[in-house]
């Protein structure tokens, strides 16, 4: 990746070429030298997320399409499940019946209340009858058997009223519990029904839809891709040998194929410490600082990350290097190979820290 001839530092004052110099001999010159790290990558929207299904079902309705702007919590897809619809309908019917059973006009409670009223009426009559027989018995005007029969009828009626009142309270409490359980069950099924409605989390643009209407969608399966169309960033891949030079805040010059010769400025915002073993690169994210490209998902880009800028350094063309640290020079008419101390470099030029002067005459190697 870093050996590519494509570099865009010409736009900041350093013209780079992959061609050799026409002259075979040259001398070192003081120039401004910018060192940059080459990177390639893609443009992605910020806050990107995938919409996934929370239940199994067939995609029966779609309210938005690729390229559409969507709002927050907007319904985008509707799934259908016959079993879930049946459960929801059953829980709804049970809830309506429970509400009727616990209402003021509840037929169950009305029947128990009528029985309780009849028992209280009988108790009142038996109480009067018992008092009358007690007075007669106290005056020896009736037999003990008649008195005890009246007393037994009174106690039986009294116990019957108590039992029917407890039955009414017990039934009312049970109907209340049944109502609460029915409400809970309906809410659970209603929430489960929401799992069949796929909504957006945040506002953005619908970039891709993975399913077609009529297709079966499994729980956890991705249905669509959404991202922020107003905010994009560059996701770059840096060769592992150059990664140590990159720091947060460094300037990034970005070239996008669809924009031809236009250069966008960005800055490094995040470094990822994990090496991608497949291509031996590290990931670096950069945000645009001035004009931003349109939010076309995955646009291919190439970039240079400016790691140092040197206004005046002694430089030589890179093609005069022999190996990594030697050059051929002309000395007293002879060709001599010497070692130099290099500084920063780009694809075209190399800084010479020691070993040469402006008067040195460089020769191309054989």
From TrEMBL:
Residues 232-304 form the CusB-like beta-barrel domain. GO terms for molecular function: efflux transmembrane transporter activity. It comes from Emticicia aquatilis. This is CusB-like beta-barrel domain-containing protein. InterPro entries: Beta-barrel_RND_2 (IPR058792). It comes from the Bacteria. It holds the Pfam family Beta-barrel_RND_2. GO terms for cellular component: efflux pump complex.
